[in-house]
């Protein structure tokens, strides 16, 4: 399945091109098989000139392509270029000084865990190990995981610390697709999911649901629809002013200084359910080929160029 990813910079032209019922119908027809303009005009019950003009607008934004195909003479045949369009609504911050480190890690690369059933690790094509058996979390193939779930416990990751010597971290960000973990799925199933960075509790997000019943954009077809399908993309940011969740102040107790990033050989990321959590509803963690977002675990560290103790 070929996906076109849009952001704030390129979404407008595509949106204008598909904001037309005839052009949407053309895409629907071409999703079944290639057609020439005459065939499209006949199915749409439109004049050839009107159909050709709409085809041209879709070609201009590269949603469809045209090639010369031999037949009765040579004819132009149109085919669709993408199976799916996704719009990224998170605005990426520009950093002209480039004092930013970006690292992405697969969800199967955890270095420590403590999990309780229901639990499991799912790859792109099948389960890894045995469902509801915590021993599966130690299988070598766990590194191929695209979905990790557990009802209680935690997983810990260690990102390389690439902070330049002599620099000081000014902002830390962590982004992941998450949701609660219920039997099968349950839309009303809150869970208090906590993030720790370098052993310091950063904050807790209460997931409202274990989302299912509607297939995630990236969730493989073999995965049953009544199981967990997708999560929510959550962004934790820690600055000198405290910890923020999706841009909203979460707490002021943990600041970037508390993380001591410049003193650590790695950056520890731990996700889990606290023992005293009010809502102990488990955790689902999604990889780049599962759920709704084409990314694994993402860390950003912004830093000053030089500082002195």
Automatic annotation (TrEMBL):
<keyword id="KW-0238">DNA-binding</keyword>
<dbReference type="GO" id="GO:0003677">
    <property type="term" value="F:DNA binding"/>
</dbReference>
<dbReference type="Pfam" id="PF12840">
    <property type="entry name" value="HTH_20"/>
</dbReference>
<protein>
    <submittedName>
        <fullName>Predicted transcriptional regulator</fullName>
    </submittedName>
</protein>
<dbReference type="InterPro" id="IPR011991">
    <property type="entry name" value="ArsR-like_HTH"/>
</dbReference>
<dbReference type="InterPro" id="IPR036390">
    <property type="entry name" value="WH_DNA-bd_sf"/>
</dbReference>
<feature type="domain" description="HTH arsR-type">
    <location>
        <begin position="13"/>
        <end position="91"/>
    </location>
</feature>
<dbReference type="GO" id="GO:0003700">
    <property type="term" value="F:DNA-binding transcription factor activity"/>
</dbReference>
<dbReference type="InterPro" id="IPR001845">
    <property type="entry name" value="HTH_ArsR_DNA-bd_dom"/>
</dbReference>
<dbReference type="InterPro" id="IPR036388">
    <property type="entry name" value="WH-like_DNA-bd_sf"/>
</dbReference>
